[in-house]
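Practice set, problem 2.
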Amino acid sequence: MKKLIALFFLLNVSTLFGQYHTNASKSELGLMIGGSYYIGDMNQYMPFRNTHLAGGILYRYNIHSRLSFRANLTYGELSGDDSQLDEAILVDRNLSFNNKIWEFGSGVEFNYFPFQIGHKRYKGTAYLLAELAVFRMNPTTIDDNGNKVELRDLGTEGQGSPLNSKGKYSKMQLAIPLGVGAKFSLGKRASMSFEIGIRKTFTDYIDDIGSGSYVDPVLLAEANGPLSASLSNRSLSSSRYGRRGNATTKDWYVFSGMMVSFSLGKPEKCYSH
């Protein structure tokens, strides 16, 4: 996984610099601001629940008026809390988490209509986004003493011990961002975009919940320590046999918001389209 992520990063950085020096007039640099939220075991059905402020930077290279290469570095925060849910069995589970996400992604934008900054005719378009991304996660929670605790190293489901065949999950993960948006020309050198993009991930541990059942707390305390055991099962009813999570699904997260970008060179008279 680490070698694949490193290769992905190096290939995209070299592509970025190569395209920038090829034609600055087709290149844009911009800022993004919006919100982020997650879909998973602590929020299965409610879009925009626990939305946090998110932002980032954007590079776009306009190959022609209908297709653009894009790369973006984005920061967002994800969270969930069982006390906010309606289902009694989930409220009783009594878990919560917070996760700060750093994501680097690159891919392509497909414009529905021809678009070019500063062009009198091609002023705006809807578009589709498809990317490949790598992101860093680190789920945390608040313990009974009010302290913030990083969950990954605790192995709350017995990871890294004989109680679980899985090792501790990686903080570096891959995702596939897919999105829709609309962009508009702002004069001769700038554009504004509005976008929502959902991230398909390959991990079930953004919220530190991957198993459908609890590990024996006595054995877990012996293997990974008493803090691991106490944060693994915080059930209000103290049930050892309740539902911890859904092991058949992966977690998702969403970034949405607006972007303003500026051309890095003088605009061309017309892109090919």
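Problem 2, part (b): a different protein.
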Amino acid sequence: MLIGPQNSAADDALARNLRALRARIEATGAAGGRNERSITLVAVSKGHGEQRLRAAADLGVRDFGESYLQEALLKRERLAARALIWHFIGRVQSNKTRPIAENFDWVHGIDRLGVAERLSAQRPAALAPLQVCIQVNISAEQAKAGVAPAAAAALAADVARLPQLRLRGLMCILPHGQKSQANRHAFAAMRLLLAHINAGQGGHLDTLSMGMSADFDDAVAEGATLVRIGTALFGARPG
């Protein structure tokens, strides 16, 4: 359910949070010799109402991540006048590929060729190719979606051939509550996997979608180009 307009105190908190996040991203990136412009903050706005997105957009946020499809479509319709970039960051169900293909700019969770083929076939020809990342189960969690690292290169080769998709790179979600050292190890493995795929397939992939509110510092330190941040930006989701 979408939450209604928020008060100015919430907007002030949003502005403070965004400044703090940008400062941390810039500092961590600079420590690794990277420019902050090479790292995009994707505001994970699922569960937050239209007014919260408007407030974030007023502060310069352009990339929004959603995984509740019907809620996302309503927000997209109401914010159509804004030049926003919409990322679908949830698991893609086969029966929902058409509205995702028709309404999003990015999809972060490709882990099956069949889903990728449906997205490509259902992407309107008038739109630019849908930008996608392959989700990798880098921590080998049984309950976690994603392709095994050993299978990622083969899936990448198949997805890259689909005409209405543009394969950009890899995505992962780490176990909650890991220590920083374990996070860094997993994120580094993702960076090396991307380099391995690039070495074998022409070097066109440029995106690592990794890091969330609890671990984005570690992700940026290991090469993340997209960080998906919700709670640290908006606060806890209502309800």
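Answer key, part (b): Residues 40 and 78 are 24 Å apart (CA to CA). The chain is about 45% helix and 15% strand.
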